[in-house]
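A brief tutorial aside. Many learners find it easier to grasp structure tokens once they have seen a single protein encoded end to end. The record that follows does exactly this for ISKra4 family transposase. Read the sequence first, then the structure, and try to relate runs of similar tokens to stretches of the chain.
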Amino acid sequence: MQVRIVMELIGDDGEEIGREIIADMTKITTGAEDLGLSLAEGKALLAGLQQKMVETQVNLWLAENRETDGRRLRHKGYYPVTFHTLFGDVRLRSPRYALPESEGRNGPGTVSPLRQLIPDHIAPERLYLETRWASLVPYAAAAELLADVLPIDCGINATTVRQHALKTAARIERELTEERVSFMQDSCPQDWTNLPIPDGRIVIGLDGGYIRDRDDRKKNFELIVGRSLPEDGEPRYIGFVHGYDRKPQRRILDHLKKQGVQANQDITFITDGGEEVRSLAEMIAPASEHVLDWFHITMRITVLRQFAQGLRHHDKEAGNGLLDMLTRIKWYLWHGNTYRAREEIDWLLDDAEATETDYPNMKKFLTVIGEFRFYIGSNHASLINYGERYRSGERISSAFVEATVNAVVSKRFAKKQQMQWSRTGAHLLLQTRTQTLDGSLRSTFEKWYPGMANDNHRNSDNQSAA
């Protein structure tokens, strides 16, 4: 079977602009592998279509944009330009036009209009896909994946993908214009009463993770990641390198405002009680609160119980006594009785220090009790009635944040990919990865390139009609 694919180009006035033969091929059917287009044939066909279509579109656009102040510009020559698209790299001739002479002009004497149309020499759709895949898998794997399925095997490599992804992230960073670190800064409390009734409570979990430092391979540095869960609306991720952004609270505030959070809205921050993440949640909004994660409390009590059970093998009475005290401590904390819980922890430490035993881990046991005492004391203002919250169906644990750390950090930065990172590279990649994971990256590109949104609407309408 002979197959000829012809592209017919028609102008806005309905007149034919041109007709091009895109492909001539012979198809011989001997097996399933011969049916339809092969991957190589499909890639070649798309590349040919793209070349002819872009060339025609560019020529029409240049013809409409050759005048300045009603005067047709004089042609001065061409220089080659490569436009990187999803369906192949398109080679174009970019014309140079001489500008009319004018008094007092110190600028260049020529202009290249094509720079206005394609300033970055890359199609937004391709930039979007490169950024999206680079946020999910290593740069080299993203380049290989795109080259496998699209006709862009030339000019696509790990370095190019990395540069494009980080360039997108830098643009996202430049849009972070919020300078305030809280809703209360430079605002009047009287204005909060005039705000509409908020949608409901929003819960934000923050936690940290560590990745290898490229500049000092013996050290790690910390990433802060989180997830916000509004009662009505889609969850969103946030991430940044601790210490890289000197005003991290403004990033959280900007994140909340993009989700429609108001100054009078209830905001609950759930963290593991670490000093770094706890400081981020302070004084963000007048109706915000910081809650110490119940999971981390019980995890520490579980470790203490293991030591007490070990002690029981050497001193049954002392071990049982300390286990009973730990049970009471957990009960007091669960019901929000902070005063009695801290008092019981003091007694636990006193009784443990007074115990004379040959238990080999007794010194470690005392150290862990002291650390738990300091932990609860440092976070006493963040202890709540966990039982009451739990019975009301509200969140008391940052287990969803642990999953966030695994999704945002471990799967791309640490566990599967043992790589070293610069602080700048890690911070920028976090901006695109968080948007990729929560599905907001496409919306960001549609805001930058409105035509991408229009194409989606048209495609949706066509699919509905079909």
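Self-check: The radius of gyration is 31 Å. If you spotted this yourself, you are ready for the next section.
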